[in-house]
Every structure is written in structure tokens, then in C-alpha cells.
Amino acid sequence: MRERIELHLNEAPKLHNPILIAGLPDSGRVAKIVLDHLIKTLKAVPLGYLYSDYLPPRVLLKPDGTPELMKHEFYYWLNTDSTDGGGHDLVLYTGDAQPILPEGAFRLSDAVVNLAQQLGVETLVTVGAFITGRISDNPKVYGAASEKDLVKELKSLDVEIIDSGAVTWMNGLIPGLAKVRNLKGLFLSGETSGFMVDPRAAMLILRVLIRKLGLQIEMKELEAQAKEIDDALKEGSDKDSQAAQSSKAKYVG
After folding, report:
1. At 36, which helix (H) or strand (E)?
2. Residue 136, φ and ψ in degrees, nearest 5
3. Partners of 173 in the beta sheet?
4. What's the angle, vertex CA 125, arms to CA 121 and CA 127, rounded to 5?
């Protein structure tokens, strides 16, 4: 019988104080933007991938017209900039979609935490979207952590603490399972309306990760994307305002 999770791994070097950062597609694609940007700018090395029938039943079509099964991917990055030995290597986890079943969310999260432990990871971070249903002029990063000391650390990084409600699917399960296994778990979410792809929310999370981990990450590409979206929103707002004024001018009561 075929396994419901097929994990394929390459050989990896010994990692130094590794931290795992996970992000799967969500509202505004916030988490996916964060992970794709980390992988691209850090030039992270492929560690492996997994196929699973817990993922949506579809294939993705590549630019050459050929199909590819949906999958989740692992990468690693060696922190060669750390001169005092206090830095962290990274394990990066992302994929094409969230699992479609609760069982799949649990089992895939369990597989991720298992692999993290095998690689020597002691801290697991998930990233995602904090959906407000409105466009904020001053969006924030919200977060939660598995222990009080980590909560204090998040506060020192200007993260607003989520003190009620729930964190759903793998975003919550990975740090939750980490806590059960006496590992450290963090969740960071960028404030977003949920109406559109939101690189600005991703940038907010990246800035927290930069401060926490001492990373050197260029964000001009994301800044340009965010500006394009802001300009489009402003143009749309101006057109709506002009249309409203025109409608009032023509009204005869």
C-alpha cells in the first residue's frame, strides 16, 4: 500500500543551531511570499520534498506545458556570516497548498516536526496572515509562542501578542506539536485585509525575522511590488470618488 506521505530527502551537511521556518499558501499568500523570498535571497539549497494525497487533488502546469504533482519542499541555508558561532542555520519549509483534511494537517505537521528533530532543530517558526477585512494604514505583526520567555522576546521585537482565539491548520499545529515535544514554537502573522496578494504583510514578518536572527535580506523587490499594489488601490479609490461626484452632479430630484 502506498504511503500517504512520501518523503524524499537529499543528504545535508551538519547544521549549526538550526531554526525551522515554515510557511504555506494562505490568505494574501503572505506566508508563501515570506518563504519564497527567504529561499531566493538566501540562495537556500534544496533538502528534499514530499508528495501526499492529503494535498488537493490537482496537478500544476509548468511553463513548458507539462504537469507536476503538488508537493511540499524543504531547503537549508548555512549561516557562514556568523563569526562568533552564535548564529543559526535555517531549514525552510513551504509548498504548493495546505492539506485538505484535518488528518492531513496533523500528519504533515507531525512529519515536519519529526524531520526538524532529526536535523537538530530546537525552534520552529510558522508564518501566516492576520486577516482583518480592512486595509490598515499602519499594519502590525501579531504572534504567539510556546513559552513565556519567547512571548517576552516577541514583545521586544514589537510583535503584538495574540492572547485569545485560535491559530488554525499547520500554522498552529507545527508550533503546538513543538511545544508537546519540549521544543520551542513561534507563530508570526502579518496584518492583511485578506482581499489581495499582500507583499507588505510579508515584509512586516521578514523585518521581525531579520531582527531576531540577524539576517541580511534585500527587500527592494517586495517594496516595489507593494508600491504597485498601493498605487493601484489609490487609482481605484480616486476613480470611485470621481464617479461618485459625477453621479451626484447629474442627479435631479
Report:
1. helix 30-42
2. -95, 140
3. none
4. 150
CA atoms of 14 and 12, how far apart (whole Å): 7
pLDDT of the residue at 251: 47
Do β-strands 123-131 and 19-22 pair in parallel, antiparallel, or remain unpaired? parallel
Alpha-carbon distance values, 219 to 33, 87, 207 (Å): 12, 21, 9
Rounded to 10 deg, the angle between the 199-213 and 220-250 helix axes is 150
What's the pLDDT at 244? 55
What phi and psi, each to the nearest 5 degrees, are found at residue 50?
Answer: -135, 145
pLDDT confidence of 169, banded at 50, 70, 90? very high
pLDDT in tens, 211-244: 999 999 999 999 999 899 888 877 765 555 555 5
Q: Which tens digits make up the pLDDT trace of 136-161?
A: 889 999 999 999 999 999 999 999 99
Q: How far apart are CA 209 and CA 199, in angstroms?
A: 15
Distance of CA 95 to the CA centre of its chain: 10
Q: How is the chain split among helix, strand and coil, in percent rounded to 5?
A: 40, 25, 35
**Contact yes or no for 5/106 (Cβ under 8 A):** no
Quick one: what percent of the chain has pLDDT higher than 90? 80
